[in-house]
Every structure is written in C-alpha cells, then in structure tokens.
Amino acid sequence: MAAFTANQVTVNNGQKNIVINSSETPVGVRKGDFIGIASFALIEINRTYVDSNNKHVIELVKNWGNSNQSNQPAIVIPTTVDFKQAADALKTANTLFNDNTQAMQNWQTKTGNVTFNNIDGTTTTVKTLKQIENEAQAQLEEYHPYPYAMRKVEFEARRAANNEKFAASGFVHFGKMLDAAGIIEVINEGLGLSGGRASSLAGQLALGYLGNSAETGNSKTKQAVVNICGVVSNIIGLSSHQSDYGARVKLPPTEDGTRTYDSATGLSVTHASPAIAFASETTTNKVVTERVDMWGFEVFLREINHADPFVYANGVIQSLATNINNIMTVSDTVRPSSYFAWYEGDESSTGKGVNWQTATETQRIAIASDPNNNIYFDDATGKFYQWCLRGRSVAGLGNGDWDAIDTAPVGNLTLRFDGASTSGRITPQGVMNAPPAAGVDTGVNYFSNTLSAYNLSPYTGVFSSRRNDDSDASHTYFLVCGTVNRLNQGAYHPSFNSGGTSNTVNEGQTSNGKWYVSGYDRITSKSQCFDLTYHRPVYGSISNPASVKGRQDSKAYDAIYASGQGGVCGDMRYSAWGLTQEDFAEADLKIKSGEYRGRELLVTSKVLDTGYWDTSDHSNKRFKWINYQGSIVVYLNPTLCGIASGDSIIIVDKTAGFVLRIKNVAAVGVSVLSAPLDSCTSLIGAIPSTNTNGETSTEIYLIHEKSGDYSLSSEYLHTEVIGDPANILQCDALKEGWVGNWNPNIPSGIDAVKLTRKALNTTGDMAVYTSDFGSSWGSSESAQNLDLTNNTIKHPTLLGESNVVVYTYAAQAKYTQSGANSPIHGASVGVGQVFTSMDAAVNKGVLLCSFLTGKVSTHQTTALSIGEETLYLTSHSILSAAKTLWGANVSVGETKHTHLNLSAPTNQSHAFKALNYNVVENQQGFINYAYTELKHDGTDWGDDGKIHIVSNSSTMLDDNGQTVKVGTARIVEPLGWIKNDK
C-alpha cells in the first residue's frame, strides 16, 4: 500500500483518537501501521473507524504524549507487510536459526535490505527496520519540511501563554548593572550611565550588564528581558558588545538654536543659523531649546526572504554579537543604515547577523532550534519568520514634555509628542527601511494605545500599530521605556537660557567667564545665548573642564545625567509581572526614607510691575484684588499680565505686611482669576479679612508663577531669587523672569532666610548677588552658611537689605500631587499605617512632609526625643460601593489611630501624619496619602487621633483651635501594573 496522507488531523494530549478533519478516507490503513503528525515521532496505529459525527478516526495503540495538535498534516506509513514477511520467514526457519542470526542483527541495526534463508532453500529479502523508519521520515519531511523549526502554531501558543502569565508588556527581568563608582552611576535596577565622565558611554544609557566585573542589582539575569505582546526578547548586544552592556541606548544630538517647531502646523525646520531661527519665531513657532527625548523598544514581525535574508541573535536587529549559536555573524549590508537607526540621522547602529539564505542546513538547525531567537516556520506560507526588536529614541519635536506616552489614560489615544497635529505622532517603522512621515500613510501612520478604537491588538502596557490588515506592518508594537530632558549648546543664563551649558565670552572674544562676571555679563536676550559673538558651544562639552562650563553644576550638553536638568526624567521600565502588596510596601518605605525619585515640572517666575486696576483708569494698570466671601478674586489686565488659568500668583502687599500665594488660579471671565481660600497659602502675615480691597494699598506686587514645559526627576539644582520685588524689576538679568521661584523672605542683613524647598546637601550651594540692581554682581560659594537642619541661609553682606540674590542649591523633585480619595486596592489589606514625623533628616520623612503640607520640618531628634513614629489604626471602615475610606466626620466609620507620642519640637518645627493606602487606575498601581498637618502650641500637638479623609486639599481646626492643612495626595508616577485575573 502507498503511504496515506491527510491534510488536516486533530489530536489532543493524553488521547488515542486522531480525527481526520479533511475529506480523505483511510482505506488500507491497518493495525500495525505507523502515523506521523507534524514533526513528531511515528506512533503505531491500532485501528480505524467512523465516529458518531461521521468523521474518520485513527485509533492509536497508546495515548498521544505530545502537545495538542489542531488541523495538522499527517502521513501513515504502511509497515505491516514488511514486518509480516520477516516474521513468517523467521517462524519457518527454526532449523536455520544460526544461519539467520546475523541477518536478524543487521535487520535491527542497519539500513538497506537483508536476506533471510527459508527452510525450503529459498530466500526472502526485506527492508531493515531502520530503512523503514528512514523512508517514513523522508516521506514525512517531504510533506512537512524543516522538522527542527518551531511552527507558527506553537509560537503563537507560547505568546498566548505569556500574555496569560504576565500582567502587561514590560520587563520580565531588569538586568544587572556594573558596580563601579567613578565609572558608572546606577539610576534604577539595571539602568546606568557615565554622567559627566568622558567615556565610551558618554551621552548614552546602559541597560543590563554582561561583563565579569563587580555587578549590582536584584535581577535574576545579567541582561534585561522584555515581554512585548507575548514575545519575550533577551536584550543582549544591542549597540553593544557581548562583554559590555546588554544595550547602549543612543539619543539624538542636542539642540544648537537653529531648529524651530510650529505647534499650530506641526512643522519642524532647521535653519542656517540661530539668528535666522530666532527671527522666525511667532506666537506658535518657537526655537527648540528645552527638548525632551523619549526612548523605548519596537517589536515587529518580519519574513525572512531573499530580499531581507538576515537573522539576528535574540531577534535584536542592532545586535553587535559576534556569533549566533556559535555561528559567526557579519554586518547586514542588505538593509540601509536607516533600518537600524536609533534616531533619525543615526548611521552608526548597523547590526550583525547571519544570512539565512546562504547558511548551511546545520547552521539553520542550530539557530532555529534556539527559541530565544524567536524564529518560526509557517506551514501555510512555506516561509520562515523572525520577531525582531529595534531600539528607538525620538527627539521631542518642540520644547517640553511629550503629550502622550502612557498607554492607558483616556484621551491620550496615540503615542505622540504634540496632539495639535498629526505630525506629532510617532509612526511604526517595523520592516520598513525608515519610519514613514506622520500623516502620510493613513494605514500605518501612528501607534494606538489600549483604549483606541483603532487598536485591534490592545495588549496592556504597549502601543500597537493601527494598520488593520494582516501585513507585516500590522504586527508592530512599541514599549515606551523612559524620557530624558536635554541641555542645549547655548550659553547658560538663569533668565534667558536655563538649559544652556557654556560660559559667555568677552567683547573681544579672547576669554570666557560666567554670565554674571563683569565683561561677560553682556547677554540680554535668549537669541544671544546661541550667538557665537557671545559664547562658544565647545565650552559646554563634556570634553572640556568645569571652569569653562556656564552652569553651577558644571553639566555638559553632550552628556546624560542620572537626575535633574539634562538627566533621566521618566523611568517607565515597568515590570511585566503584576504588583504585589509587598511591592506597594517597599515603595512606601522608599518614599518615607527619601529614596523615591519623584518628578515635577520646573516653575518659571516673574515679578509683575506695581499698580492696580481702578474703575476710573486701568489702561496701564495690572490688577486689583479682593477677599470676598471666602474667595480671593483678582481682577487682571490680561494683556499686561500674561497670566493664564492654572498658573499661580503671589500677592505681595508691603503696606499691609503680608505675602499670599494663590495656587492654580481659575478663569472666571476674560480678565478675572479667582481661587477659594483653601487653595491660598499665607507665606508671610495673616490672610486679610473679608472684603479687604487691594486698592487701599500703596505698594503692591504680583509674582507670576507658571509651570514650565518640561519635567525633571530626583535631585536637581533649584534656583531661588531673594530680594525686594521692586529691586528685582530693576535688574535687567531678572526682570523678564527666571526658572525657579521667588523667596518671600525679603532680606534684612540680620535675619536668616528660610528656603522654600528642603536643601538636600551643599552640592551646588552658591549665591550670585547684586546691590546695585545688576550693574555688578558678586558670587559666593558655600559662604552663605547653609543650615541643613533649619533649612536657612544667613550672611550679613550677601543678604543685605537692598540686595538681590540668585541662590542655587540641591533640592528634590516632588513625590506627590493633589488627588482624590480613591477606591482602595485590596480592601483592608491595601490600607497601611499612620506615619508621623517632624524630623529634619531626609531619611525620616522630611521630603514627604514638605510635599504634602508645603512645610519643611526642622526638628533635630536626640536620643531623648521622639521625632518620628508609626501609629497603628484602631478602627476604619470602607464603603462597600465606593470602596473608599469613610471620613472622620462620620462617627460610625471614623478612621482612628493609636496615641501620638511625638516630643515637643525643636526649631519651632511643625509635623505631619499620613495614612498610606493602595489604589489602582487604568490597571496601574499608585499609593495615596491621607494627611494632616500638625502644629505644636507649646503644650501639645492638638491631635484628635483621627485621619480626615478629604479629596485634594482643605483646612480644619485642630484640637487647639489652630488652622492646619488636610488632604489627599497621590504619588506622581505609577509603580507598575496590576494583573487582571478577572
């Protein structure tokens, strides 16, 4: 009988029945024949029959021991006749047993044919057992080629299993990092950089460590491992050598003042010179100087063919690995450099691989048999495919943060820098030689998030290509890993170019110096910061010493730093594994001990001129204000003030003797901004009584605080301007504003000045000051007597009554932002404990205190005093429907804690208490803090033993009748993903 074949059969693990789904009838298939399915070993047949569904069934002698197979091809090998002939010959040859012994051994062990002697003197020639098996396998391979290769159905089954196992696309393992001080700085698990050090890693990020030197980190693997939509990739050798880092993340070159971006049209233009670029500025078209870059990994499916023949180790197309499974690699010269580029214009990232079309069968078997290479064979098309990974970094089109890089929030449906135009979208590159221009191909012109109606593959945690056909381009996904804010190549100036790096030059261009030094203080506009008449870009390079750099922190434009300006901002390498209660608890401890990185938008401040808006003549007046029925109402001339809804203003009334900050003002009309009193903070003096009219004051100022365009993270160099607003307005270097804030404590030359943010250390501690309205400046490094406990500076000359001081010091990016009382994740298990502290130490909660209450604790704890403690809840209730904590004003559900034992404070410090609880939004985990400010009245803290549940912020009276702040805040970044098992 000839071999029987079936196009589609189905069999399940542990069962004997093979169902023929196609139309073939197994006529002639007999007991003792063998069947082969896919690339699995042959197995013996017991019988055939027709089941109740009128399907032909082949029953096996024993259960199918392999994985489930659905609609796979099969072949039946007829062996019964050959075996029977051999057996009959043996049965009738007892007398000739010794003569047939060697033939029997050959039949069992060799290929070809053997001849047996019959008892009647004749002979019988049959195929050996191995010959039968080989011919059966040959017939099977002819029908089902490349049995060594993983099939598409198995690969997709693995993807489905991964998507079930993991909470989201993300990092399975973060990788190790080189532990070598002075060589590399570790940012977070598996991520590091060289900072300001001139090394081969300068201007790059390191991901994972493959070397043999000292390493650090808790990762199970040396390299980073990512899961993207079920495809797991080992990131080894990406733009890096195998003995180096797992990956070198490359970022685009920094800005030199020649490029503009129009937010109205989405048009980005690089001009011939900075002068032309600045001359091109309009209301919407601006020179790009404060740029934020985004980086991540793109995963895509590609067919291996003659036009695109290379395969890569672990599917990493930018791999510099010298071999794949011990097979030497060569540079891929088939694809152009743009195919491998990290960013537009990158020509140095061409990967190395093996040409599949010229590889030997042995080499193919070695590569395809390794599942880490993510290669499979599709029987339906008869072709090989590889899932590949590409590192991509994208320069921000304009100034500031990206509009949408999170995959979950409602409203941010695409991966984009700017939502104003389609040009701001990031396009999938996939198998293409270069990313297509945004908005050109409507089928593949952007990545969609999980909530987009265009996303047909909404894998949690990753952006998907919106192409809705089954082309290779439709199988492209992007995992955002982080952002970096970049310094520029211009001269540093606190007002005109806070992102600059170089010193300025004198008029003869013969020497260089800081922006404030006589002879070098010539800059009066932002455009001059990029004019070669006033500076040299090379002075801001990592290759030059700190003495020629213009910044107090000596940062270079061509380096990347762990924090602050020019540093890593958002580390979005979230774990693929679901968050546990232990993960929340560890994060809470990091926040309280000052180890959390945090993130915040820099603030720009500007003093507005004096004057109020009266009813008779307001053509050249700026404002008037009224405290009316519990709200501060400020009437503004919008043309002169430039204040928008959401900004903050500080009212300085020198006549009445108070300074009042109004946060996040709201527009009520075209020229009216208002805010309730609970959003106002009295910085100096009491808040004026109801109906107090600003027109009665003779000397009044506004300080306009506006959130900047870009964020920074962790420790950064904070700037405060200290001085009378009237004096600041006369300083040409500051009258147009500065990046930083105004200190409400006007210097007297006698009293210490309290800083507005907690000073972390003396790094970057420096003051530049003037007593003649900026005609000349002096400088002082570490001579201002920075008191880290009291958070003050004091110096009689530096802080003279008529002086204006530009003071810089190390501060921490904010941990929290105002938030609502949210549903608790995990019910009572997700509710923490009450932490209370008044200690000035960073590792004892001072940062969390400052971000929650706006006050910096100054207590110095001794062995005989209690400066911090954890209080346990004695009662709490969770609303069954809303899943939120009941407020303290509901007696039946009050949230109460054990007695507060803090000692009396030193340095007139105040304190705080906060209850942490876990929350989830869009499947991401956060921590909320329900907090209360504590004030000591000389006897006790006036604590009522309750946690007051209030969304955002408000005020209340404590048990001593003092007004304290209460509210709810949420950490600024998610901790990771929650696994959805429902």
Structural write-up:
The chain has 982 residues and is mainly β. It folds into five domains: 4-78, Elongation Factor Tu (Ef-tu), domain 3, CATH 2.40.30; 82-143, no CATH class; 259-485, no CATH class; 601-812, no CATH class; 816-977, no CATH class. The protein has eleven helices and 62 strands. Strands 52, 53, 54, 57, 58, 60, 61 and 62 form an eight-stranded antiparallel beta sheet that branches. Strands 21, 27, 28, 29, 30, 31 and 34 form a seven-stranded antiparallel beta sheet that branches. The protein has a six-stranded antiparallel beta barrel with strand order 1-2-5-4-3-6. Strand 38 and strand 39 form a beta hairpin. The longest helix is centred in the N-terminal third of the chain and has 15 residues, at 129-143. It is elongated, with a radius of gyration of 36 Å.
Uncertain residue segments: none
Number of helices: 11
Radius of gyration: 36 Å
Q: First CA to last CA: what distance?
A: 54 Å
Question: How much helix, percentage-wise, in residues?
Answer: 10-25%
Largest sheet: 8 strands, antiparallel
The average pLDDT score comes to 88
Multimerization status: single chain
